[in-house]
Amino acid sequence: xxxxxxxxxxxxxxxxxxxxxxxxxxxxxxxxxxxxxxxxxxxxxxxxxxxxxxxxxxxxxxxxxxxxxxxxxxxxxxxxxxxxxxxxxxxxxxxxxxxxxxxxxxxxxxxxxxxxxxxxxxxxxxxxxxxxxxxxxxxxxxxxxxxxxxx
Length: 151
Hints:
Oligomer: single chain
Strand content: 15-25%
Structural class: alpha/beta
Shape: globular
Strand order of the largest sheet: 5-2-1-6
């Protein structure tokens, strides 16, 4: 009887290749875009994905103010934060947040889809979101990807 031995390859910090990816959020649905971006940040589409390591790519999201929300989420969804003072609970809808800080809507959505631990904090630092079409990361030569082609 012939037995074959297969090795499972796990990524190590020395073997991880990190790329820069550019995503245009114009006309994208917030939740669908956020899940795909979270998977890119984690590196789940890579063949050497290792769940306990940061093997994902750096992601730059532009045109965050042109994001879409389906249904009544623009007025009915509520973001809750606390100032730290008594009676300091504050509520904002996506419509109000898009007027003041449009990049935060995308940041909150992607952050919610990452792990809630130290690895999630490290992955979140690889995300850069900008309200307009300009970004200061031209030197990294990010590759523009079409999220509609990613499953």
